TrEMBL record:
Protein's recorded name: Cyclohexanecarboxyl-CoA dehydrogenase
Organism, as annotated: Thermomonospora echinospora
Acyl-CoA oxidase/dehydrogenase middle domain location: 121-214
Record PANTHER family: ACYL-COA DEHYDROGENASE, ISOVALERYL-COA DEHYDROGENASE, MITOCHONDRIAL-RELATED
Domain (Acyl-CoA dehydrogenase/oxidase C-terminal): residue spans on this chain: 228-375
Alphabetically ordered keywords of this record: FAD, Flavoprotein, Oxidoreductase
Length: 381
Protein backbone atom coordinates (compact mmCIF):
# COMPACT_ATOMS: atom_id res chain seq x y z
CA UNK A 1 0.00 0.00 0.00
CA UNK A 2 1.32 3.44 -0.95
CA UNK A 3 -0.23 6.68 0.29
CA UNK A 4 2.25 9.00 -1.47
CA UNK A 5 1.56 11.14 -4.53
CA UNK A 6 3.94 10.68 -7.48
CA UNK A 7 6.60 13.36 -8.12
CA UNK A 8 4.45 14.69 -11.00
CA UNK A 9 1.41 14.89 -8.73
CA UNK A 10 3.46 16.69 -6.04
CA UNK A 11 4.67 19.16 -8.68
CA UNK A 12 1.07 19.77 -9.82
CA UNK A 13 -0.04 20.36 -6.21
CA UNK A 14 2.76 22.87 -5.68
CA UNK A 15 2.02 24.70 -8.93
CA UNK A 16 -1.71 25.01 -8.27
CA UNK A 17 -1.07 25.94 -4.60
CA UNK A 18 1.13 28.83 -5.73
CA UNK A 19 -1.35 29.94 -8.40
CA UNK A 20 -4.15 29.78 -5.83
CA UNK A 21 -2.23 31.86 -3.30
CA UNK A 22 -1.43 34.50 -5.90
CA UNK A 23 -4.51 34.64 -8.14
CA UNK A 24 -7.46 32.98 -6.39
CA UNK A 25 -7.45 33.60 -2.64
CA UNK A 26 -6.83 37.38 -2.83
CA UNK A 27 -9.61 37.91 -5.41
CA UNK A 28 -12.28 35.55 -4.05
CA UNK A 29 -14.00 38.07 -1.77
CA UNK A 30 -14.46 40.55 -4.61
CA UNK A 31 -16.02 37.88 -6.85
CA UNK A 32 -18.36 36.94 -4.03
CA UNK A 33 -19.30 40.57 -3.39
CA UNK A 34 -20.00 41.39 -7.04
CA UNK A 35 -21.55 37.99 -7.81
CA UNK A 36 -19.40 37.69 -10.96
CA UNK A 37 -16.15 36.01 -11.89
CA UNK A 38 -13.59 38.54 -13.05
CA UNK A 39 -13.03 38.90 -16.79
CA UNK A 40 -10.36 36.51 -18.00
CA UNK A 41 -10.73 34.03 -15.12
CA UNK A 42 -11.45 31.07 -17.41
CA UNK A 43 -8.41 31.95 -19.54
CA UNK A 44 -6.25 32.02 -16.39
CA UNK A 45 -7.55 28.62 -15.33
CA UNK A 46 -6.92 27.34 -18.85
CA UNK A 47 -3.36 28.68 -18.75
CA UNK A 48 -2.83 26.51 -15.67
CA UNK A 49 -4.09 23.59 -17.83
CA UNK A 50 -6.90 23.01 -15.36
CA UNK A 51 -9.48 22.35 -18.09
CA UNK A 52 -7.02 20.28 -20.13
CA UNK A 53 -6.20 17.93 -17.24
CA UNK A 54 -9.35 15.83 -17.69
CA UNK A 55 -9.36 15.83 -21.51
CA UNK A 56 -7.51 12.99 -23.31
CA UNK A 57 -4.28 13.95 -25.08
CA UNK A 58 -5.81 12.82 -28.40
CA UNK A 59 -8.24 15.75 -28.12
CA UNK A 60 -5.85 18.47 -27.01
CA UNK A 61 -5.85 17.73 -23.29
CA UNK A 62 -3.31 16.47 -20.78
CA UNK A 63 -5.04 13.13 -20.18
CA UNK A 64 -4.16 13.32 -16.51
CA UNK A 65 -5.13 10.62 -14.05
CA UNK A 66 -8.14 11.13 -11.80
CA UNK A 67 -6.02 11.56 -8.66
CA UNK A 68 -4.32 14.54 -10.33
CA UNK A 69 -7.71 16.15 -10.98
CA UNK A 70 -8.51 15.67 -7.30
CA UNK A 71 -5.22 17.27 -6.28
CA UNK A 72 -5.80 20.28 -8.53
CA UNK A 73 -9.34 20.83 -7.24
CA UNK A 74 -8.35 20.41 -3.59
CA UNK A 75 -5.64 23.04 -4.01
CA UNK A 76 -7.80 25.44 -6.02
CA UNK A 77 -10.70 25.21 -3.57
CA UNK A 78 -8.44 26.35 -0.73
CA UNK A 79 -8.36 29.75 -2.44
CA UNK A 80 -11.86 29.89 -3.92
CA UNK A 81 -14.26 26.97 -4.15
CA UNK A 82 -16.61 28.46 -6.72
CA UNK A 83 -14.41 28.50 -9.87
CA UNK A 84 -13.72 24.83 -9.16
CA UNK A 85 -17.15 24.04 -10.61
CA UNK A 86 -15.86 25.01 -14.06
CA UNK A 87 -12.94 22.60 -13.75
CA UNK A 88 -15.24 19.94 -12.27
CA UNK A 89 -17.68 20.25 -15.18
CA UNK A 90 -14.88 20.04 -17.74
CA UNK A 91 -13.59 16.87 -16.06
CA UNK A 92 -17.03 15.27 -15.62
CA UNK A 93 -18.36 16.14 -19.07
CA UNK A 94 -14.96 15.41 -20.65
CA UNK A 95 -15.16 11.91 -19.16
CA UNK A 96 -18.78 11.48 -20.30
CA UNK A 97 -17.87 12.53 -23.85
CA UNK A 98 -14.68 10.48 -23.95
CA UNK A 99 -16.59 7.41 -22.78
CA UNK A 100 -19.75 7.79 -24.85
CA UNK A 101 -19.43 10.24 -27.77
CA UNK A 102 -18.02 9.26 -31.17
CA UNK A 103 -14.37 10.11 -31.96
CA UNK A 104 -15.71 12.67 -34.46
CA UNK A 105 -17.83 14.38 -31.78
CA UNK A 106 -14.88 14.34 -29.35
CA UNK A 107 -12.67 15.98 -32.01
CA UNK A 108 -15.35 18.64 -32.53
CA UNK A 109 -16.02 19.47 -28.88
CA UNK A 110 -13.15 18.54 -26.61
CA UNK A 111 -10.21 20.66 -27.87
CA UNK A 112 -12.19 23.83 -27.07
CA UNK A 113 -12.96 22.46 -23.60
CA UNK A 114 -9.27 21.76 -22.97
CA UNK A 115 -8.38 25.28 -24.14
CA UNK A 116 -10.98 26.89 -21.87
CA UNK A 117 -12.82 28.31 -24.88
CA UNK A 118 -15.93 26.22 -24.19
CA UNK A 119 -17.30 26.57 -20.67
CA UNK A 120 -19.57 23.67 -19.83
CA UNK A 121 -22.74 23.29 -17.80
CA UNK A 122 -24.54 20.14 -16.73
CA UNK A 123 -28.27 20.68 -17.27
CA UNK A 124 -30.01 17.89 -15.38
CA UNK A 125 -32.04 19.31 -12.47
CA UNK A 126 -35.52 20.67 -13.20
CA UNK A 127 -37.90 22.64 -11.00
CA UNK A 128 -39.82 19.42 -10.27
CA UNK A 129 -36.98 16.86 -10.29
CA UNK A 130 -33.60 16.80 -8.55
CA UNK A 131 -32.90 13.66 -6.56
CA UNK A 132 -35.31 11.73 -8.79
CA UNK A 133 -33.44 12.89 -11.87
CA UNK A 134 -34.56 9.85 -13.87
CA UNK A 135 -38.01 11.49 -13.93
CA UNK A 136 -36.95 14.61 -15.86
CA UNK A 137 -39.78 16.07 -17.89
CA UNK A 138 -37.92 18.14 -20.48
CA UNK A 139 -38.87 16.79 -23.90
CA UNK A 140 -36.84 16.37 -27.08
CA UNK A 141 -38.96 15.86 -30.17
CA UNK A 142 -37.54 14.52 -33.39
CA UNK A 143 -37.63 17.01 -36.27
CA UNK A 144 -36.57 16.41 -39.86
CA UNK A 145 -32.94 17.30 -39.28
CA UNK A 146 -32.49 16.63 -35.57
CA UNK A 147 -34.29 17.37 -32.32
CA UNK A 148 -36.22 20.22 -30.70
CA UNK A 149 -35.90 20.79 -26.93
CA UNK A 150 -38.80 22.01 -24.78
CA UNK A 151 -38.66 22.50 -21.02
CA UNK A 152 -36.93 24.12 -18.07
CA UNK A 153 -33.67 23.27 -16.32
CA UNK A 154 -32.76 24.91 -13.05
CA UNK A 155 -29.90 25.06 -10.56
CA UNK A 156 -27.48 24.91 -13.47
CA UNK A 157 -24.12 25.93 -12.00
CA UNK A 158 -22.23 28.29 -14.37
CA UNK A 159 -25.47 28.71 -16.31
CA UNK A 160 -24.72 32.43 -16.62
CA UNK A 161 -21.33 31.81 -18.29
CA UNK A 162 -21.51 28.46 -20.06
CA UNK A 163 -21.10 28.31 -23.82
CA UNK A 164 -22.39 24.72 -24.00
CA UNK A 165 -24.52 22.47 -21.86
CA UNK A 166 -25.09 18.76 -21.70
CA UNK A 167 -28.87 18.80 -21.57
CA UNK A 168 -30.87 15.77 -20.46
CA UNK A 169 -34.27 15.40 -22.12
CA UNK A 170 -36.88 12.72 -22.51
CA UNK A 171 -36.97 11.07 -25.92
CA UNK A 172 -38.64 7.85 -24.82
CA UNK A 173 -40.95 6.45 -22.16
CA UNK A 174 -40.82 7.05 -18.40
CA UNK A 175 -37.76 6.33 -16.29
CA UNK A 176 -34.03 6.36 -16.81
CA UNK A 177 -34.04 4.56 -20.18
CA UNK A 178 -36.15 7.29 -21.77
CA UNK A 179 -33.55 10.06 -21.18
CA UNK A 180 -31.09 11.27 -23.83
CA UNK A 181 -28.12 13.64 -23.46
CA UNK A 182 -27.65 16.49 -25.95
CA UNK A 183 -24.50 18.61 -26.34
CA UNK A 184 -26.16 21.97 -26.82
CA UNK A 185 -24.76 25.44 -27.60
CA UNK A 186 -26.32 27.70 -25.00
CA UNK A 187 -26.47 30.69 -27.33
CA UNK A 188 -29.02 28.84 -29.50
CA UNK A 189 -32.26 30.72 -30.24
CA UNK A 190 -35.03 29.88 -27.77
CA UNK A 191 -32.86 29.69 -24.62
CA UNK A 192 -33.49 32.15 -21.77
CA UNK A 193 -31.15 32.27 -18.78
CA UNK A 194 -32.26 33.64 -15.40
CA UNK A 195 -29.61 33.89 -12.66
CA UNK A 196 -30.47 32.69 -9.15
CA UNK A 197 -29.58 34.57 -5.96
CA UNK A 198 -27.71 32.21 -3.68
CA UNK A 199 -26.46 31.84 -0.12
CA UNK A 200 -22.98 30.96 -1.35
CA UNK A 201 -20.88 30.47 -4.48
CA UNK A 202 -22.46 33.75 -5.53
CA UNK A 203 -20.13 34.29 -8.48
CA UNK A 204 -20.96 30.83 -9.86
CA UNK A 205 -23.82 32.04 -12.04
CA UNK A 206 -26.20 29.25 -11.02
CA UNK A 207 -29.21 29.81 -13.25
CA UNK A 208 -32.54 28.64 -14.53
CA UNK A 209 -32.46 27.88 -18.25
CA UNK A 210 -35.71 27.80 -20.24
CA UNK A 211 -35.65 25.93 -23.57
CA UNK A 212 -38.47 27.07 -25.81
CA UNK A 213 -38.30 25.01 -29.01
CA UNK A 214 -34.50 24.88 -29.23
CA UNK A 215 -33.31 23.09 -32.38
CA UNK A 216 -30.22 20.89 -32.19
CA UNK A 217 -28.75 18.64 -34.86
CA UNK A 218 -28.98 14.85 -34.85
CA UNK A 219 -25.25 14.87 -34.13
CA UNK A 220 -25.84 16.60 -30.77
CA UNK A 221 -26.90 13.28 -29.23
CA UNK A 222 -24.23 11.78 -26.97
CA UNK A 223 -23.99 8.01 -27.05
CA UNK A 224 -27.44 7.37 -28.45
CA UNK A 225 -31.09 7.91 -27.56
CA UNK A 226 -32.06 6.61 -24.12
CA UNK A 227 -28.49 6.40 -22.80
CA UNK A 228 -28.12 9.85 -21.25
CA UNK A 229 -29.12 9.06 -17.69
CA UNK A 230 -26.88 6.02 -17.41
CA UNK A 231 -23.95 8.06 -18.80
CA UNK A 232 -24.31 10.84 -16.27
CA UNK A 233 -24.77 8.46 -13.36
CA UNK A 234 -21.51 6.71 -14.25
CA UNK A 235 -19.87 10.14 -14.50
CA UNK A 236 -21.09 11.01 -11.00
CA UNK A 237 -19.00 8.13 -9.64
CA UNK A 238 -16.06 10.28 -10.69
CA UNK A 239 -17.27 13.82 -10.01
CA UNK A 240 -18.59 12.95 -6.54
CA UNK A 241 -15.06 12.13 -5.41
CA UNK A 242 -13.81 15.36 -6.99
CA UNK A 243 -16.42 17.57 -5.33
CA UNK A 244 -15.58 15.85 -2.03
CA UNK A 245 -12.00 17.05 -2.44
CA UNK A 246 -13.19 20.57 -3.27
CA UNK A 247 -15.02 20.54 0.06
CA UNK A 248 -12.00 19.16 1.91
CA UNK A 249 -9.71 21.76 0.31
CA UNK A 250 -11.86 24.73 1.28
CA UNK A 251 -12.61 23.48 4.81
CA UNK A 252 -8.96 22.60 5.46
CA UNK A 253 -8.01 26.19 4.62
CA UNK A 254 -10.45 27.45 7.26
CA UNK A 255 -9.23 24.89 9.77
CA UNK A 256 -5.59 25.91 9.21
CA UNK A 257 -6.52 29.53 9.80
CA UNK A 258 -8.45 28.59 12.95
CA UNK A 259 -5.44 26.66 14.30
CA UNK A 260 -3.18 29.65 13.62
CA UNK A 261 -5.67 31.92 15.35
CA UNK A 262 -5.93 29.59 18.35
CA UNK A 263 -2.14 29.81 18.83
CA UNK A 264 -2.15 33.60 19.20
CA UNK A 265 -5.58 34.77 20.36
CA UNK A 266 -5.53 35.10 24.14
CA UNK A 267 -8.29 35.05 26.72
CA UNK A 268 -7.69 35.06 30.46
CA UNK A 269 -4.00 35.57 29.71
CA UNK A 270 -3.45 32.41 27.66
CA UNK A 271 -3.78 31.43 23.98
CA UNK A 272 -7.23 29.93 23.40
CA UNK A 273 -5.53 26.87 21.83
CA UNK A 274 -4.34 25.88 25.31
CA UNK A 275 -7.97 25.31 26.34
CA UNK A 276 -9.09 21.83 25.38
CA UNK A 277 -12.58 23.20 24.80
CA UNK A 278 -11.07 25.02 21.80
CA UNK A 279 -8.37 22.54 20.77
CA UNK A 280 -10.31 19.27 20.87
CA UNK A 281 -13.09 20.29 18.44
CA UNK A 282 -10.40 21.46 15.99
CA UNK A 283 -8.61 18.12 16.39
CA UNK A 284 -11.86 16.25 15.80
CA UNK A 285 -12.62 18.22 12.63
CA UNK A 286 -9.07 17.73 11.35
CA UNK A 287 -9.59 13.99 11.85
CA UNK A 288 -12.95 13.98 10.06
CA UNK A 289 -11.53 15.93 7.11
CA UNK A 290 -8.55 13.60 6.91
CA UNK A 291 -10.87 10.59 6.73
CA UNK A 292 -12.98 12.29 4.04
CA UNK A 293 -9.85 13.09 2.04
CA UNK A 294 -8.63 9.50 2.22
CA UNK A 295 -11.88 7.95 0.97
CA UNK A 296 -12.11 10.53 -1.86
CA UNK A 297 -8.57 9.81 -3.03
CA UNK A 298 -9.19 6.08 -2.63
CA UNK A 299 -12.17 6.42 -5.02
CA UNK A 300 -10.01 8.26 -7.57
CA UNK A 301 -7.13 5.83 -7.15
CA UNK A 302 -9.51 2.92 -7.71
CA UNK A 303 -10.86 4.61 -10.83
CA UNK A 304 -7.34 5.06 -12.17
CA UNK A 305 -6.61 1.41 -11.40
CA UNK A 306 -9.72 0.36 -13.34
CA UNK A 307 -11.43 -0.89 -10.16
CA UNK A 308 -15.05 -0.39 -9.09
CA UNK A 309 -15.11 2.92 -7.20
CA UNK A 310 -18.85 3.51 -6.77
CA UNK A 311 -18.95 2.81 -3.03
CA UNK A 312 -15.98 5.02 -2.20
CA UNK A 313 -17.14 7.91 -4.42
CA UNK A 314 -20.61 7.96 -2.89
CA UNK A 315 -19.23 7.58 0.64
CA UNK A 316 -16.92 10.54 -0.06
CA UNK A 317 -19.79 12.64 -1.42
CA UNK A 318 -22.09 12.28 1.58
CA UNK A 319 -19.34 12.45 4.19
CA UNK A 320 -16.90 15.09 2.93
CA UNK A 321 -19.31 18.03 2.43
CA UNK A 322 -20.85 17.40 5.84
CA UNK A 323 -17.45 17.10 7.52
CA UNK A 324 -16.35 20.22 5.65
CA UNK A 325 -19.37 22.31 6.66
CA UNK A 326 -18.98 21.23 10.30
CA UNK A 327 -15.24 22.04 10.24
CA UNK A 328 -15.79 25.42 8.58
CA UNK A 329 -18.49 26.23 11.14
CA UNK A 330 -16.14 25.36 14.01
CA UNK A 331 -13.41 27.47 12.40
CA UNK A 332 -15.82 30.41 12.31
CA UNK A 333 -16.66 29.96 15.99
CA UNK A 334 -12.95 29.76 16.86
CA UNK A 335 -12.50 33.21 15.34
CA UNK A 336 -15.34 34.63 17.44
CA UNK A 337 -16.79 37.90 16.11
CA UNK A 338 -13.99 38.17 13.52
CA UNK A 339 -15.19 34.94 11.91
CA UNK A 340 -18.69 36.31 11.50
CA UNK A 341 -17.34 39.26 9.50
CA UNK A 342 -16.97 39.06 5.74
CA UNK A 343 -13.56 40.70 6.16
CA UNK A 344 -12.11 37.19 6.62
CA UNK A 345 -12.70 34.31 4.15
CA UNK A 346 -14.11 32.10 6.94
CA UNK A 347 -17.79 33.07 6.56
CA UNK A 348 -17.72 32.93 2.75
CA UNK A 349 -16.17 29.48 2.79
CA UNK A 350 -18.91 28.22 5.11
CA UNK A 351 -21.60 29.61 2.78
CA UNK A 352 -19.89 28.15 -0.28
CA UNK A 353 -19.41 24.78 1.38
CA UNK A 354 -23.10 24.31 2.12
CA UNK A 355 -23.61 24.23 -1.65
CA UNK A 356 -21.39 21.16 -1.90
CA UNK A 357 -23.93 19.32 0.27
CA UNK A 358 -26.44 19.74 -2.58
CA UNK A 359 -24.53 19.95 -5.88
CA UNK A 360 -23.89 16.61 -7.65
CA UNK A 361 -26.42 14.92 -5.36
CA UNK A 362 -27.36 15.35 -1.71
CA UNK A 363 -26.35 13.08 1.15
CA UNK A 364 -29.81 11.57 0.69
CA UNK A 365 -29.12 10.71 -2.95
CA UNK A 366 -25.66 9.30 -2.32
CA UNK A 367 -26.77 7.27 0.70
CA UNK A 368 -29.54 5.82 -1.47
CA UNK A 369 -26.89 4.60 -3.91
CA UNK A 370 -24.97 3.10 -0.99
CA UNK A 371 -28.10 1.52 0.51
CA UNK A 372 -28.83 -0.14 -2.83
CA UNK A 373 -25.34 -1.59 -2.89
CA UNK A 374 -25.15 -2.60 0.78
CA UNK A 375 -28.70 -3.86 1.25
CA UNK A 376 -29.73 -4.74 -2.27
CA UNK A 377 -31.63 -2.94 -5.01
CA UNK A 378 -35.03 -3.93 -3.60
CA UNK A 379 -34.41 -2.01 -0.36
CA UNK A 380 -34.05 1.48 -1.91
CA UNK A 381 -36.00 3.38 -4.60
C1 LIG B 1 -24.26 24.67 -5.47
C2 LIG B 1 -25.14 23.81 -6.32
C3 LIG B 1 -24.72 23.44 -7.58
C4 LIG B 1 -25.54 22.68 -8.39
N1 LIG B 1 -25.15 22.41 -9.66
C5 LIG B 1 -25.99 21.78 -10.49
C6 LIG B 1 -25.68 21.66 -11.86
O1 LIG B 1 -24.64 22.16 -12.34
N2 LIG B 1 -26.54 21.00 -12.67
C7 LIG B 1 -27.71 20.47 -12.21
O2 LIG B 1 -28.43 19.88 -12.99
N3 LIG B 1 -28.05 20.59 -10.90
C8 LIG B 1 -27.23 21.24 -10.04
N4 LIG B 1 -27.57 21.43 -8.73
C9 LIG B 1 -28.82 20.87 -8.24
C10 LIG B 1 -28.60 19.63 -7.36
O3 LIG B 1 -28.11 18.56 -8.13
C11 LIG B 1 -29.94 19.32 -6.68
O4 LIG B 1 -30.21 20.38 -5.78
C12 LIG B 1 -29.90 18.01 -5.93
O5 LIG B 1 -29.78 16.93 -6.83
C13 LIG B 1 -31.16 17.79 -5.08
O6 LIG B 1 -32.32 17.98 -5.84
P1 LIG B 1 -33.46 18.98 -5.33
O7 LIG B 1 -32.78 20.24 -4.96
O8 LIG B 1 -34.53 19.02 -6.32
O9 LIG B 1 -33.98 18.33 -3.97
P2 LIG B 1 -35.12 17.22 -3.84
O10 LIG B 1 -34.88 16.11 -4.79
O11 LIG B 1 -36.45 17.89 -3.86
O12 LIG B 1 -34.84 16.69 -2.38
C14 LIG B 1 -35.16 17.50 -1.22
C15 LIG B 1 -34.55 16.83 0.00
O13 LIG B 1 -35.11 15.52 0.18
C16 LIG B 1 -34.07 14.54 0.22
N5 LIG B 1 -34.55 13.34 -0.46
C17 LIG B 1 -35.25 13.25 -1.63
N6 LIG B 1 -35.54 11.99 -1.91
C18 LIG B 1 -35.00 11.24 -0.93
C19 LIG B 1 -34.98 9.84 -0.65
N7 LIG B 1 -35.55 8.95 -1.45
N8 LIG B 1 -34.32 9.43 0.47
C20 LIG B 1 -33.73 10.31 1.29
N9 LIG B 1 -33.73 11.64 1.08
C21 LIG B 1 -34.36 12.08 -0.02
C22 LIG B 1 -32.90 15.18 -0.52
O14 LIG B 1 -31.66 14.60 -0.08
C23 LIG B 1 -33.04 16.63 -0.12
O15 LIG B 1 -32.45 16.84 1.14
C24 LIG B 1 -26.79 22.22 -7.90
C25 LIG B 1 -27.20 22.57 -6.61
C26 LIG B 1 -26.41 23.39 -5.85
C27 LIG B 1 -26.91 23.84 -4.51
Amino acid sequence: MDFAFSPDQEALAKRIREFTAERMAPLAAEADRTGRFRDGLFAELAAQELFALGVPAAYGGRGADSVSLGIALEELAAGDLTPCYAVLNAALIGAILDGNATPEQCRRWLPAVAAGESVLALCLTEPGHGTDAASVEMRAEESGSGWVLHGVKTSTMLGAYATHGVVFARTGGPGARGVTAFFTPLDAPGITRTPLHDLGSRAGGRSTLAFDGVAVGADAVIGGPGLGFVQVMRGFDYSRALIALMAVGAASASLREALDHARVRETFGRPIGTYQGVAFPLVEHATALHMARLVAYEALWRKDAGLDHRMEANMAKWWAPKAAVDAAHQALLTFGHQGWSEDLPIARRLRDLIGTELGDGTAGATRLVLARRLLGREHAP
